[in-house]
Amino acid sequence: GIVVADIRDGETVPALLEAAEAGRLVLAATSAPSAASAVAMLMEADPQPWVLAGNLKAVVATTTVRRLCPHCRRPIAPDDETLAQLGLMAEEVGQAFAPGGCGECFNLGYCGVAGCSSAMLMDDRLAAVFRSGPSRAELAEAIEQAGARPLLRVGLDMVREGLTSLEELARCLPR
């Protein structure tokens, strides 16, 4: 198998796909805010979408966020600067929480980390979309319909549940 820590250029993708076509297991990472963005980057790097459709099995978008201390988190109204940074409106967020600080968390407001992730598993319907040479918007829609939500949306659910703060989400999401 082949493991690539970070795909940084378009020259790496064809080599990885060639290895996958030869039957090798290829695991690769890239910094992307969603599974759809990662796939779009792969498609832009390789002019043959059927090669990607035939060899890609799954894409996992993931990051970790600090977990708010359940003992001292406090409800807040989202601030305009963080909303702008994430490209959101206050109505989209709803309830938000901020770190407090107590003896349980050593006055940090956070204790531990939580995973923020979303996965896309290739199926026949997605492979057909890939082969059709879709636009970025069509690709994103098909991948989201297959269940892979953007990390921002997964993270917003975590914010609403009080698991992490909006500021932490803005700090941790790939841009």
3D structure, described in words:
- The chain is an alpha+beta fold.
- It is 42% helix and 20% strand.
- A two-stranded parallel sheet has the order 1-2. The protein has a two-stranded antiparallel sheet with strand order 3-6. A two-stranded antiparallel sheet has the order 4-5.
- Strand 1, helix 1 and strand 2 form a beta-alpha-beta unit.
- Helix 2 packs across helix 7 and helix 3 packs antiparallel against helix 6.
- The longest helix is centred in the first third of the chain and has 11 residues.
Question: How many individual helices?
Answer: 9
Largest sheet: 2 strands, parallel
Name the helix and strand elements from N-terminus to C-terminus, one letter apiece.
EHEHHEEHHEEHHHH
Distance between the termini: 29 Å
Structural class: alpha+beta
Number of strands: 6
Q: Give the helix level as a range of percent.
A: 40-55%
Across the major sheet, the strand order is 1-2
Average pLDDT, to the nearest integer? 93
Shape by Cα distribution = elongated
What is the strand content? 15-25%
Spatial extent as radius of gyration: 19 Å
| Unreliable parts | none
Give a summary of the structure in a few sentences:
This protein has 175 residues and is of the alpha+beta class. It contains nine helices and six strands, in the order E-H-E-H-H-E-E-H-H-E-E-H-H-H-H. The chain is elongated, with a radius of gyration of 19 Å.
